[in-house]
Amino acid sequence: SDLAMNPLLPFAAARCHNLAITLVVTAVLPILLGTQPCYGYSNPGLRVRVCQNKACCKQYENPLDLVENLQILLVDGQHADVATGSAKDVVIEPSSCLCHCDAGPNIEIEWNAKREVVSHVKDWHQVVARLDSETNDSVPPVLRAACLVLNKAKLAPINQQEKLLCSVISKLQEEDLQNSAAIALAFAMRAAYLVESGGDPSDTIEDCARCLAIPSATAQARRLAFRAWADVEERLGNYDEAVSVLRQWAQSQPSCATKIQKEILRLLSLSTT
């Protein structure tokens, strides 16, 4: 069965005492089975490619990188069916150098059979304004506000982070955006905050599980959630559980697998001493 395939599910259910087992199943199985939504790659309607050349990246003015900001805004905005957790033909992706380096930062927008490189893109506001005019649609104000607060929380002192993140989570829940990439990132960032501040381990694990349960969670949000979950299990001395989390992380994000494997070996050595 699917449950038997997944070593993370049994201990996740036990650790999150008040969190429904269905939440954990939703969090892990899409990652393990490869069923997370692929935002329009088979039939792209809107594609935004963001140059990742160092010359461009260092000029962005937001704490969160541009790819993440656009995923939060566009996948959950006018182009997403949040209720089903699927996107409507949207691709937001990193890109190799788009040339025009002297005019960077650069992005490439593909829409309605047109492809155009847009230069001097300093932050997500410029991209969203351009897309709003191109697509005759607009990003919901609540997601714009959430994106602003998430960027603010990224730079805030640790004693202010929780308040900011809780405000985002509360507002998005009120607006029926419980499955948005924005709230997934807020859960992951709050989990990271709880680890750093020595918060309640159960609350940390619950936030991680909630993040991973959201199909539209960004790659960065998933990395934060797996990182926080593994760290809190290690701090509790639950080395086997930490290893299970890390293995799940490696399966979901193979590009991190080599680094994660070193951590797994370290934890396995601790569990045998």
Protein model, in words:
The protein is 58% helix and 10% strand. With 273 residues, the chain is an alpha+beta fold. The strands form two sheets. It has a four-stranded mixed β-sheet with strand order 4-1-5-6, with helices on one face. The chain has a two-stranded antiparallel sheet with strand order 2-3. Helix 3 crosses helix 10, helix 7 (141-155) runs parallel beside helix 9 (181-197) and helix 9 packs antiparallel against helix 10 (201-212).
Quote the distance from N terminus to C terminus.
34 Å
Radius of gyration: 19 Å
The shape is globular
Please give the largest β-sheet: 4 strands, mixed
Low-confidence runs (pLDDT<50, min 5 residues)?
Answer: 1-11, 16-44, 77-87
Secondary-structure element series: HHHEHHEEEEEHHHHHHHH
Count of helical segments?
13
Q: Strand tally, please?
A: 6
Class inferred from helices and paired strands? alpha+beta
Average pLDDT works out at 78
For the biggest β-sheet, the strand order reads: 4-1-5-6
Helical content stands at 55-70%
Strand content: 5-15%
Secondary structure elements and their pairing?
Elements: H1 2-5, H2 8-15, H3 21-33, E1 46-51, H4 54-57, H5 66-75, E2 80-81, E3 86-87, E4 90-95, E5 107-111, E6 114-118, H6 124-135, H7 141-155, H8 158-174, H9 181-197, H10 201-212, H11 219-235, H12 239-252, H13 257-271
Parallel strand pairs: 1-4
Antiparallel strand pairs: 1-5, 2-3, 5-6
Helix pairs in contact: 2-3, 3-10, 7-8, 7-9, 8-9, 9-10, 9-11, 10-11, 11-12, 12-13
What is the structure about, briefly put?
This protein is 58% helix and 10% strand. With 273 residues, the protein is of the alpha+beta class.
